[in-house]
Specification:
This protein is mainly alpha-helical. Helix content is about 80%, strand content about 0%.
C-alpha cells in the first residue's frame, strides 16, 4: 500500500471495493482477488490508525 496515500483516500477505495465484493454476479477469481486487496487495505488502515494513536499519546504525555 502506498504510504503517501491519506487514510480517507484508502478508506474510500475500500468502501468501493466492498460494494464490488457484495455483487452476487461476480466470478470467483476476481472475487478472491478483490477480497485479498480489501484485506491488505484493512491492514494498512489499522496500521495507520495505530501509528496516529501512538503519536497522539506521545504528544499528550508532553503536555501532562
Amino acid at each position: 500500500m502506498d504510504n503517501e496515500k491519506k487514510y480517507e483516500e484508502v478508506f474510500a477505495e475500500l468502501e468501493k471495493l466492498v460494494e464490488k465484493i457484495e455483487d452476487t454476479e461476480r466470478d470467483l477469481t476476481s472475487l478472491r482477488d478483490d477480497i485479498a486487496k480489501a484485506l491488505e487495505m484493512i491492514k494498512w488502515c489499522r496500521e495507520h490508525i495505530r501509528g496516529n494513536r501512538e503519536e497522539i499519546e506521545k504528544l499528550m504525555e508532553k503536555w501532562q
